[in-house]
Each structure stands twice: as C-alpha cells, then as structure tokens.
Specification:
This protein has one domain (about 25-350): Alpha-Beta Barrel (TIM Barrel). The chain contains 10 helices and 14 strands. It has helices at about 5-15, 100-110, 130-145, 160-165, 185-190, 195-210, 230-240, 255-265, 270-275, 300-315; strands at about 40-45, 50, 65, 70, 90-95, 115-120, 150-155, 175-180, 215-220, 245-250, 285, 290-295, 320, 350. It is globular.
Length: about 350
C-alpha cells in the first residue's frame, strides 16, 4: 500500500510499537459531511447489458450480472466500483434508456437462460431516484417472465410502489441488504446517501413478511470502527429484532483507488489514517476474477469474525464468512460458509433525499 507522507511519518514514529494502534476519533465528536445526489441523465447502452458475473469463481457460471446504471448515487468511500479508473465521478448518474427491453431482447437471443442475474455489481439498483427504481423493477419483471431469478443488493430503500410492482414475482427475487452500523451518525459518514439503517431494517422485515427472499450482510466491516463489541451488539440486536437470523460478513479490502477515496472522504475526519494503518502489514490476495486487493492481516480478520460469531451465537444467529474476501482461509472458519450466493451493490434532474 502506498501511504501519504503524513502516514509514513506517523508509521516512523510508531516504529518499534507495532502492536499499538493509531487511535480513532470518537464518532460523537465528528461532523457529518454533506453530500449531494447526482444529476440523472439518460444514454444509449452500447454492447450487452447481461455480462458474466465477476464473482463467478465464487458462484456458479449460471449466474449473470447486469449494470443498467453507470455511477452510483450513494458515494460510499470504500466502494470498489467508484475506484475504477473509468468511473465517471459523482456528479452524474447515467441510466441506460430502455434497459428492460434490451434485457428482453438479449434473453430471447440466448441459447440457454441463466439461473439468475445479479443486479448490480457496480451500482445500487434502488437509489433515491425514481426513474432508476422503475427501470430496475422493469428489468426484474422481464427476468421473471423468463423465470430467471433476480439477485438484488441495495443500500437504498425500495419505494412502496416499486415493492408492489415486484410483489407478483417475489418467489424469484432475492434482496440482500448490506449493513455497517446501527449508529445513524456513523452510517451517514460511511454510507453517505444510503437509506438509514432503520429504514432498511424495516423494509427487510416487510419484504420477509411479503414472501421475498431476504438476506443481510455486515459489509464491509471497518476495523476499529464497526467491528467493536459495542457496534456489533447494536447491529445484531437490530437485525434480530427485524426477523433476520443469519448474516454474511466481510471486512473492508483496499486497492489504490479505494485508498484514495477513503483518504479523501474519511481523511478530514481523522478516520482514514488509523483505519488504513491496520492494512499496512496485510496481504495482497487474489479475488477470483476481480482484481487482487490488500486485506486486513489474517489474524485480525479471524479475531473479528470470531467475536462476531460468538455474539451472533448468543442471539441464536449464524454468520457466514465471505469466501471472496478471505481467500487465504484454507479451511472455512465456519462450517456454514457458503459459495452459492453473491456476497459480495428520480425524476430526471435532481433526486430527493430519503424520507422516513
Ligand atoms: S451503494 Fe454499493 S455500489 Fe453504490 S457507492 Fe455504495 S458500495 Fe458502491
């Protein structure tokens, strides 16, 4: 990992005290930065929408993926998609016009149909922009007409009218909600334009009640910040109260572009350096078909997962550790580790913030 001059100087100061962690500021003392929703524009999509799943070394090849939007409204610093060199920035979100109909044409032309399509590896299918939510629902409807499952992952809130639209296809829809914290202030810092955790939990419960398949993940765990006993207890209790008894979990991984975004967004708050410092001695590991990344040292991950599993077990909950983000775990840390699901996420013009 390349480090800024100040980080290197700090590391020099800490030489010989390697077990000492750089201290994180108290969340209560932090300001919450302001973020703006991007402007939505429409564009033609060149090339296929249905693509091989980038996670297909960890799920079967019968699962495709699809991004009908370029960019993401949520602006999470840790996001690997925002770190792609071709990422267009956060000011504009591009929705591919007629995506649902294009998916219909592509499915019609395929010799065999996929079992499922994962929406979306590089954006969120349910940002607070109604046009995008409508197009997502249209795509799911087309997939359902071909009896293809939709695997949706969102940090957003699915509007009630869209849930109603999806309802007839609930048996073919799996929604995964990633969560980071039950602390709303910290959530606004980490997932700036995502929906509040309590809204997502309420929606998860409602979707479960309505017959959708619902999964939850603790993703990403941020060392020193969201993996403390206190943070995990708050979040697990909130999940349990929402009817969720099983979660997957994955620690933050870092690439140069992710590091730059973390330094840019979390640096002014004093969060970036203590967090990134925990990765300096971590391994760079391959991640199947996606680019290798630097991970937290293995022992630190094992300790974090062990604490999470112990706290979950006290609540009759189970934890599945992500294989994708822990390729150096030679044996599954939990007998329940799984490989068959991705774990790892508007009127034209300006959207509206989430309303509870
Ligand atoms: S919601 Fe998902 S895709 Fe969007 S910025 Fe956050 S992590 Fe990235």
């Amino acid at each position: 990992m390349t480090r800024s001059g100040s980080a290197r100087r700090t590391r020099q100061r800490n030489k010989g005290k390697s077990s000492r962690r750089l201290e994180l500021p108290l969340v209560a003392d932090l300001p919450v930065p302001a973020y703006r929703l991007p402007k939505l524009v429409l564009a033609e999509r060149r090339g296929s929408l249905l693509r091989p799943n980038p996670l297909s070394d960890f799920v079967d090849d019968d699962v495709l993926s699809l991004n009908h939007v370029s960019g993401c409204a949520m602006q999470c610093a840790f996001c690997y998609a925002r770190a792609y060199p071709r990422y267009a920035g956060d000011a504009v979100l591009t929705l591919y016009a007629g995506a649902a109909e294009q998916v219909r044409r592509e499915l019609t032309q395929r010799p065999t149909l996929p079992r499922a399509v994962y929406l979306c590896p590089s954006t969120d299918p349910f940002p607070p922009l109604m046009e995008v939510q409508r197009e997502t629902a249209g795509i799911v409807e087309v997939l359902a007409q071909f009896r293809v499952e939709s695997w949706l992952m969102t940090r957003g809130f699915i509007r009630p009218s869209i849930v109603d639209h999806l309802q007839p296809h609930a048996d073919l829809i799996q929604v995964t909600f990633p969560f980071m914290t039950a602390d709303e202030k910290l959530r606004r810092i980490l997932e700036p334009l995502a929906a509040p955790t309590r809204m997502r939990l309420r929606q998860a419960r409602e979707l479960l009640r309505r017959g959708f398949q619902v999964q939850a993940s603790l993703e990403p765990l941020v060392p020193g910040l969201t993996d403390s006993r206190e943070q995990m207890v708050l979040l697990l209790d909130a999940l349990k109260a929402s009817g969720i008894n099983s979660v997957s979990a994955a620690y933050l991984f870092v690439r140069p572009g992710i590091q730059q975004n973390v330094e840019k967004q979390w640096g002014p708050l004093g969060l970036a350096e203590p967090i990134l410092d925990r990765y300096v001695d971590g391994p760079i590991l391959p991640m199947g078909r996606i680019a290798a990344a630097r991970h937290l040292p293995r022992g630190d991950r094992q300790r974090g997962y062990a604490l999470l599993m112990a706290l979950a077990a006290e609540r009759d909950m189970t934890v599945h550790v992500s294989a994708l983000t822990n390729p150096d775990f030679s044996a599954p840390p939990s007998p329940s580790i799984r490989h068959d699901r991705p774990l790892r996420q508007m009127e034209l013009g300006q959207g509206k913030p989430w309303t509870d």
